[in-house]
Structures are given as structure tokens and as C-alpha cells.
Amino acid sequence: MDELVGQFLLEGRELLQQATEDLLALERDPRDAARLAEAFRAVHTLKGSTGLFDLAPMGRALHAAEDVLAALRAGTRQPDAAGFAVLLRCLAACAAWLEAFASHGALPEGASAESAALVAALLRATPEAAVDWVAPLLAGAAPAVAAARAAGQRVVALRYVPRPDCFFLGDDPMALARDVPGLLALELRDQQDWAALGDDPYRCNLVLEMLSTAAPEELRRLFRFVADQVEVLEPAVAPAATAPDAAAAPTTLRVEAARVDTLVELVGELTVAKNALAHLVAGAAAGTPAAQALAAEQLALDGLVGRLHRAAMALRLTPLRRVFRRFPLLVRDMAAQLGKQVAFTLEGDQLEADRVVVDGLAEPLLHLLRNALDHGIEAPAQRLAAGKPAAGTLVLAARQQGEQLLVTLADDGAGLDPARLRRLARERGVLGAAELAGLDDAASRELIFLPGFSTAAAVTEISGRGVGMQAVRAAVRALGGQVSVASTLGQGTLFTLALPLSVSLTTVVTVGAGGEVHGVPLAAVVETLTLPAARILPLGAGEAFAWRDRTLPLLRLDALLGGVAAPRCGTARLLVVQAGGQLLGLEVDAVLRRLELAMRPPSGLLARMPGLLGTGLQGDGRVLLVLNLEELLA
């Protein structure tokens, strides 16, 4: 039973999320028939699954929601904001009930009353006369209906609503249902909430809906003694779509995340062992048969570990949509709570990244969205007075850059005022006057990430406690990433989260600089070259060199890391790297070798070190620091 409950909870969450997304899309475009069909399918499927458990209030609410969606599909009701609002309320309540069932094995107290209120609201949204009861019945028995149609049989729908006192009149509704010839489907529903009926055990509260291949006149003859309680229809059924080839359908296997994580950890350990073997091979006596055989086996092992790593990481890849899909409803509700109008757009949510990275994005993005809605985007009247549209725009986007995932949140709101930020920091004791005096505008914008700093005049339910932006930076750094902010006063703000695509194996180039060995991500390296010192020329306060008909700036890695640049001999070893959207040269003492690392985000004291992407173990057991060129060269 535990496995059945787990499957129900997993599918239930997915179905509710899917239905919510479809309804939000229908709010924007009520003519989207495909979205309407998907929402109906999700609600209908979940309603059927609730019957396996003691979740009657949830089932009744979903049944009423299904009726509203069926009426929209049948065209007997026109879509409106009120109808979508109550449908979304119903789905939100079902999501809360589902989590209560997951935690306690039962629905919370008051679920029956809340369900009855929702059913009443849904019935008001869809008058009884306009409810199309046939559509959900056909949808629930689609395979049987398709088979009957394929065999040339007619399909007739029958709805029987017995009188409450039918048992005293000698009627037996279930016996009549059993006698229906050619029965394809039978669905039982309640006439009203059982809790409202009291303790009368002889009152009939059933509604029987059936599909049959019998002729309408034959069904009417069977129910001739209760003809006033029966409705018989022969609906027009669209031809069934051709079923996909079973052999071509993809096979999906659900695996616990912990098992995949264990596999990835083992691949990381195997990589460390592989690097150790490479270190031993390098130290073996060259030219001997044993050394040659060992080197050959080491190369074969390199290939196998690489293939295993790619396969293991593919199991952990998760689309960003898993997190992004939560936010449209949240933005809609928060904007309504704040009295603001917001057009929210998602871009790049089909990109995939490591599950740990994707899941870790939820908290920082939530804080950023709250911040943008509460502090960034102005109220409609303020926007109109500033010559802007009444509705603000909020764009959450993602793109891949090398081995990094860049997630941005842009708004067209009021922007950040550096002078105001400095004044607030002084008033709230975040920094002293002397420290604030030395801050330029870019550094002043970084004040929002300090503990206790907030631009809110008062604490609200959404923000204002001075912990949100600090939490954003801490969460992103825990994932091995960085967060930055850019803003133009009166035009808006852009937050950029730069994160690793994977928290597992990373390919780096090891280089020597200042007597130390460091790692540079291979994805950032365009080329390595040796250049005569005479070809390096002074350029302003720095140096430059010619590369492929271009002039590139040259920086010394040992100087960037806080050391003293050693005198240059006759030649210079350079890496041509791409960072911050530009090409430049990075001079090192030596380019050593390429290495695959089981890289971990920096922690402890290293977490505060600027320019550090992560750490990993080399073959000789020493820790290698992997540099974050984007931050180091900023």
C-alpha cells in the first residue's frame, strides 16, 4: 500500500501542477482548446485516483471542477475571470489536501466544509442546466467508446437521478443499472454532500451515469417506470485519434533520487582513483613493457570512466521547468495582493542542469521574485505618472554559457538608487560613514546582499525583514555559483545567477602560477600558446598582444591572485580565455595537463574567497583550487 500511496502522491502533484499551468494559460488565451483539454484530462485523472483512498471531499471538489471544464469544452459556458479564479482556488485546496495526506495519512479537519464551499462556488460558476455531464463520462471511457465506434456500434448516454424515497417505492437503482444491455461505463456520483443528509440510512443520494451500445428506445423501455428521473442522449463522438505505436513509445522508469546520487558519488570516487592511477603511470619507469601496458590500461580506463560519468549525469539532468513552473501562479497571486499589474514571462525553461542545481534554485528565485514585485515594479498609478504602461514586465530567463548556467530575472520597475541605498545603510547601521563614502554606484547596489539590509519602509507578508537578498547570495554560493545585480534608476533591475551546470565532474586545465597549481575550467579556454616576449606590447597601464588579427589585453594570473608577477623570460605561456563576454590573454608560469575533477562547491573559509569556483582532489591527493574567471576578471 505504501508504494501505491507514493505513486498517487507523485502523480497527484504532477497533475495538479499541470492543471494549474493550463488554467493560467487559459486565463491569457481562453481559446486555447489544447490547454483546456489538458486541464480537463489532469482533473479527471486525479479525480479517479482519489477513489482509491479516503479522500471523498477532494474527489467531490474535483468532480465539480471537472463539470466546469466540461461545460467550457462543450461551449455551454463562456470562460471568464471568475470561473478561472474559483478553479484555481479548487486546485490550490487540493494541493494543500494532498500534502496533508502525505504528512498525516488523512485530510485535515475542515476539509469537508471547505470542499462543500468550493463545490457551491463551482456550481455557481456553472449553472446546473449548463453542465455537460456527457463529456466527462465519454472522456473517462474513451478506450471502450473508441472500440465500440470502431465496431460500428452506436454509443448512448443515460443519466438516472433516483428520487430520495425510491426504496420505499420499490425501485432498485443498482438492479436497473445491472440490467442495462451493452453497458460500456457506469459512474456513480452524489446528489449532495453526505454530511448534509443526517443519519437517514434509507435516503437515496445517488446519480447514475451510463454509456451503452443499446438503442435509446430499448433503454427508455427498461427505465419506463422511472422515466421522469432519466435522461437519454446519443452524443456525437469525434473519431478517436490513432493510438501511437507501442513499440515506438518511450519507456520510463522512476528511480529514487538517492540511488542516482549514490551512483554519481561513486563515479566521483572512481574519477579520483583514475587520477591517482594517471599519477602513478607518470612516475613509472618510461619505456619498460610494464609501464607501457599500464599506460594503455590507464587510457582505456579514462574512456570508460568518461562514458560512465556522462551516463550517470544524464540521469541527474532535470529541466529548469521543474522549478520555473511554480512561479506563474505565485506571481499572479502576489501581484494581486499588492494591487499591481504584471506580465510575467518565462524563457529557457527547457534547458537541463543537475538536479541539485535545479532544486537549489527554488529558494533564491522565490526571494528575487518577491523583491521584484514588492520593491521593483511600481503600482499602476506610479507607472502611468512616469510614462510607463500600467502593467510591469517581469522576465525570468535561462541560458547556457560554456559549463555555466546563467539565470536572469529582469524587471522594468523603479530600479535601485545608489544614493538611497547608501543613506539607508548608514541609517540602519549596516556600514559606517567612512566605508560608505568609498563606495561607487556599483558597490552601493551590492549593499542589498548584506545581512539586515532592506529597502522596505515596513515589514509586510511578502518582504521587508532584511534577510531575503542575503539568503539569495548564500544559497547561490552553496551551489558553487555567484549572483550579481545591475540596475538603471527608473528603468529596472537585472539579477544574474551564474551557476555550474553540474556539481559533479568538471574538466579543467591545470596551470602553474606564483609557485602554486590552479585549475581553469576547460570550457573557458579557447587556446593555449607560447608567445615570444617581444610580441607583448605595453598598452596604457597594461599589456596586450596580437592574436589571429586581433589585439587582446594580457593579464598575469599570479598578479590577479595577489602575488608579485615574476620577471618574464624569453617566452610567455598564455591561455586565451573567454570571460565576461570578451576574449583576453591570461599569462601563467606553465600549462600542465587536462584533468577531470569531482569538483565540490567551496565551503567553510573557502566559501568567502573571491574568484573560486570549487575544489577537487588531484591524483597525488592534493587539493586543487578551480578558478572562477568570470569573477576573477570582473
Q: What structural class do you assign from the helix and strand content?
A: alpha+beta
**Helical content (DSSP H or I, runs of 4+):** 40-55%
Number of strands: 22
Number of helices: 22
How large is the share of residues in beta strands? Answer: 15-25%
Largest sheet: 6 strands, mixed
Model regions low in confidence, pLDDT < 50 over at least 5 residues: 237-249, 458-462
Describe this structure in words.
The protein folds into 5 domains: 2-132, Four Helix Bundle (Hemerythrin (Met), subunit A) (Up-down Bundle); 136-233, Alpha-Beta Plaits; 258-318; 320-500, Heat Shock Protein 90 (2-Layer Sandwich), CATH 3.30.565; 505-632, OB fold (Dihydrolipoamide Acetyltransferase, E2P) (Beta Barrel). The chain has a 6-stranded mixed sheet. The chain is 42% helix and 23% strand. The model is unreliable at 237-249 and 458-462 (pLDDT under 50). The protein is built from 22 helices and 22 strands. It is an alpha+beta fold and 634 residues long.
